[in-house]
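Q: what sequence does this backbone want?
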């Protein structure tokens, strides 16, 4: 993603990174529903990409937006990082499998 003319890359999403996101108040389910906490999700991922503290990240994003930037490139980079993450994909597969099993069990119970 490019912010204020400088390129940043989100590192591979690993278990440790998911823990860091959770410490920042972002759960895996929040990431799947970005409208829920869109600003917090953006700040958390930009923080991971830049290594800056929250206040510095907020200033960076604000400057980016004030100077005509938008969130499109940031969300594209977040989606790419999620798509490329083996850990995140396995977690998503398990969640889908568990959801299907729960739905099947509820259907049989009726």
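A:
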């Amino acid at each position: 993603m490019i912010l204020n003319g400088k390129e940043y890359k989100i590192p591979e999403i690993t278990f440790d990174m998911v823990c860091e996101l959770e410490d920042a108040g972002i759960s895996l389910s929040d990431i799947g529903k970005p409208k829920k906490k869109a600003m917090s999700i953006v700040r958390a991922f930009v923080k991971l990409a830049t290594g800056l503290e929250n206040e510095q990240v907020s200033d960076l994003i604000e400057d980016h937006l004030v100077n005509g930037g938008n969130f499109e490139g940031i969300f594209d980079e977040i989606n790419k990082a999620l798509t490329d993450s083996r850990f995140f994909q396995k977690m998503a597969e398990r969640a889908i499998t568990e959801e299907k099993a729960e739905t099947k069990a509820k259907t049989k119970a009726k």
